[in-house]
Design brief:
With 167 residues, the chain is an alpha+beta fold. The protein has two domains: 87 residues, no CATH class; 49 residues, no CATH class. The protein is built from seven helices and five strands; from the N terminus they run E-H-E-E-H-H-E-E-H-H-H-H. It has a three-stranded antiparallel sheet with strand order 1-4-5. It starts with a strand and ends in a 7-residue tail after the last helix.
């Protein structure tokens, strides 16, 4: 375990050191022992350790960037087996990349300059297009309203479903 302790005074730092201190049997001190030593509650010991220290694994690393696993508390240290762990930064980056790929794929599939030829539409696509037009198009077909604009009227929503209720 790699410890990073950053308390604002020596007392906080000492609480953190004792909280995370291990020997061959596991954690060296009970939280209640530390609490008694400093005259505070067990909750305050855990809160002090959480707010003023970080304990990193030296066995488990992010599978993308090799950042060490950060233990949230002692229980997490004992029970965590993060073999295929991905850190929050990489998780967020992967999500952003995935969103960008979806947006790019949608943009590629829509060429706003070309007109839709009815000859190349499948029957399924034609039904969807007709459904969308009947649901959202203005009377003069000059525009399509957003789907959410019609969401307050349940009968309009039913019309969007390509079922036998479609009139
Ligand atoms: Zn990472």
């Amino acid at each position: 375990m790699q410890l990073d302790i950053f308390g604002s005074n020596e007392r906080e730092n000492e609480i953190c050191r004792l909280y995370w201190e291990t020997d061959s049997d596991g954690f060296k001190w009970n939280v209640s022992q530390i609490a008694k030593e400093f005259g505070i509650s067990s909750y305050e010991v855990q809160k002090t350790a959480k707010n003023n220290s970080k304990a990193y694994s030296d066995e488990h690393f992010c599978q993308h960037c090799d950042a060490p696993y950060l233990y949230s508390n002692r229980q997490n240290y004992i029970s965590a087996r993060p073999y295929k762990w991905v850190c929050d930064d990489c998780e967020s980056e992967m999500q952003n990349r995935s969103d960008e790929m979806k947006i790019s794929a949608i943009k590629k599939s829509i060429d706003i300059n070309s007109k839709i030829s009815l000859d190349i539409l499948s029957a399924r696509d034609a039904v969807f297009l007709l459904t969308l037009l009947r649901h959202s198009a203005s009377e003069d077909l000059s525009c399509l309203n957003e789907l959410s604009l019609n969401i307050s009227d349940p009968r309009r929503l039913q019309k969007l479903s390509a079922t036998r209720l479609l009139d």
